[in-house]
Amino acid sequence: MLGPVILAASRSDKMRRFVSAAPGTKQVVDRFIAGETVDQVVTVIQDAADKGLELTLDVVGEDITTSEQAAAARDAYLELIGRLKDLGLGTRAEMSVKLSMFGLSLENGHELALANVRPVVEAAAAIGTTVTLDAEDHTTLDSMFAIHEELRKDHPETGCVIQAYLFRTEEDARRLAAAGSRVRIVKGAYKEPASVAYQDKAEIDKAYVRVLRTLMEGEGYPMIGSHDPRLIAIAQELGRKAGRKLDEYEFQMLYGIRSDEQIRLAAEGHRMRVYTAYGTDWYGYFMRRLAEKPANLLFFGRSILTKG
Known about the structure:
Helix 6 (109-126) packs across helix 7 and helix 12 packs across helix 13 (294-306). Helices cover 52% and strands 14% of the residues. It has 308 residues and is an alpha/beta fold. Strands 1-2-3-4-5-6-7-8 form an 8-stranded parallel beta barrel, surrounded by 7 helices. The protein has 13 helices and 8 strands. Helix 10 links the parallel strand 6 and strand 7. The two termini are 27 Å apart.
């Protein structure tokens, strides 16, 4: 019940000011956000590589209101890719991008977002890595999938994200489970109405397994975004039944969550990728992490109470 309330708060300027000013906020934000600058996140990438982990990097920020901000978001990713190239870390980290950050919600947003994301995809390919388009709320998905299809004409390795709680996702998964595709499946972290999405956790989990089975039995490359031990075990079993080798799919978890499990899966021979966010505009990302798991909210509450 708390999840929808927290997600609503993620859009509130008043709550943004309150959370930002709370004494314990930095301690908790540091758990989920790798840093504010490229220099800070490079250290995280190098440490992950030493542990046998790979990363997907997200420059946080979604509330774009001008084309200049969208261009700045594009340039932030290009700066990141340039640093990865200089350090020889291109093959250890891919990029995750939200098209809203590239101007999708602005006037002529579809064309603007495509124009901004294309050079990022091209630059990533040039250093041997890839870009995955993150899913956002259901009103943006048709545009996201269209941009994904357009980018794959020249860069077929471009990935996308599907969300198990949406009714449409099973059909999307059947279409996307094709040779050469890269598809991350997550449960979903946006507040969606009952007309388009499952609301019950058990129903979401069942949908997740159905979609995952479709991806595993398909010809593409599934990326399992989950921290749920039961779903991870199911994914491993579905992979075995589909005859997949351990490098023919991967697990993805968030930076700061279940770090020991990340290392364990990597040690078993699985590809383990850590979704790592950084940047100054952390509020919306941070609030969704709280909404996804009550334990995160309790951790935040204790931090505030003990830092007064």
